[in-house]
Specification:
- By secondary structure, this protein is of the alpha/beta class.
- It contains three helices and three strands; from the N terminus they run βαβαβα.
- The radius of gyration is 14 Å and the shape is globular.
- The model has no long low-confidence stretch (mean pLDDT 81).
Length: 107
């Protein structure tokens, strides 16, 4: 929603994003339609947890993929904040802590 309505949302805080739910082609098609150089762009704060559980292992590759595709479609690097906690987990306790870090970027 934040990307689709970037004229309303100025920040996107995404904790343990499940980017791997869709195929790369779907993201390419979507981001190609956004024209980031012409439109307002929200700040993206992306949090990823550690490698201990199966879910975290599945989510971590999406960290590299989403950054690569955002850069390919000219999303400004200064609007992408990546946070990775190798001890982190995919659960509310870690998201609560991470939320405090994310709020530092809210302007």
């Amino acid at each position: 929603l934040g990307m689709e309505y970037s004229n309303i949302f100025t920040h996107i805080f995404s904790f343990s994003p499940a980017i791997n739910l869709f195929k790369k082609e779907a993201y390419s098609k979507y981001f190609a339609s956004k024209h980031f150089s012409l439109n307002k762009r929200p700040l993206l704060y992306l949090y990823y947890g550690g490698k201990r559980q199966f879910l975290e292992k599945d989510l971590l590759p999406s960290y590299y993929f989403i950054n690569d595709i955002l850069h390919f479609y000219s999303y400004p690097n200064d609007l992408i904040i990546n946070s990775y906690n190798k001890e982190g987990r995919h659960n509310e306790m870690f998201w609560r802590y991470e939320c405090l870090n994310a709020l530092k970027y809210f302007k």
